[in-house]
Amino acid sequence: MADKVIRVLLVDDHQVVRRGLRTFLEVQGDIEVVGEAADGDEGVARALELRPDVILMDVKMPGTDGIEALRLLHEADSPARVLIVTSFTEKRTVVPALRAGAAGYVYKDVDPVALADAIRSVHAGHVLLQPEVAGALLAPDQPAPGSGRGNALTEREREVLGLISDGRSNREIARALVLSEKTVKTHVSNILMKLDLADRTQAALWAVRNGIGD
Q1: CA 161 – CA 149 distance, rounded (Å)
Q2: pLDDT grade for 149, boundaries at 50, 70 and 90
């Protein structure tokens, strides 16, 4: 069972928030809090030292904020999945965080049980957004469904993209569409190239913004 425990790092400049998160998460049998940090710089250093599976990261912190910390983690090839936990709901905060590589975005008033489920979800490779966050991404200045770069996608690529947005792995997509994994990998590569995206997380977010998938 030990190899199934999700190792979590808490990064928030408010000690009371970190204490509350730790108190709740420590009673979860499959989640272990391995460390804490009070700002982005410390968070990056601790992440590279402790190599957690999931990082709970605030956005607004003194010095290096959460978005810059995300960029630094990406540059350092950190394998940790980052779940943003913040009280800021404006699109100008949500979108940069997601573009910087966040695997999910929830608000600090999230139900504790839902937060634990969110940690498990992003650790499993899914992209997780609360409904309010998804709504922010569908604001008027976002492309309409099927417009812009999406027109370059074939019908099969749109099917694959929809399944990516559901958090499906290549193997699961291959099984659902009765394709080989090699063919699915080719479709994923073509999708990223046509949409000018860096990875599956960005592809899933693009799909959410543009109404592809469920």
Answers
A1: 13
A2: low
Residue 96 CB-density burial (10 A; 0-12 exposed, 13-18 middle, 19+ buried): middle
pTM: 0.64
Alpha helices by DSSP H, listed for 51-166, are: 66-75, 91-99, 112-123, 131-137, 155-165
Token representation of residue 214: 């469920």
**C-alpha torsion angle, residues 49, 50, 55, 59 (rounded to 10):** -30
Mean pLDDT of the chain: 84
Q: Confirm if 116 and 28 have CB atoms less than 8 A apart.
A: yes
Q: How far apart are CA 197 and CA 16, in angstroms?
A: 37
| Coil, strand or helix at 67 | helix
What Å distances lie between residue 187 and 19, 99, 157, 173, 202, CA to CA? 44, 22, 6, 11, 15
Give the Å distances, CA to CA, from 85 to 16, 57, 157: 14, 6, 32
Type and span of the H or E element at 56: strand 54-57
Closest CA to 206 of 155, 152, 143: 143
Instruction: Give CA–CA dist 125/141, Å, rounded.
Output: 28
Residue-wise pLDDT tens digits, 157-210 = 999 998 988 788 899 999 999 999 999 999 998 898 888 888 887 888 788 777
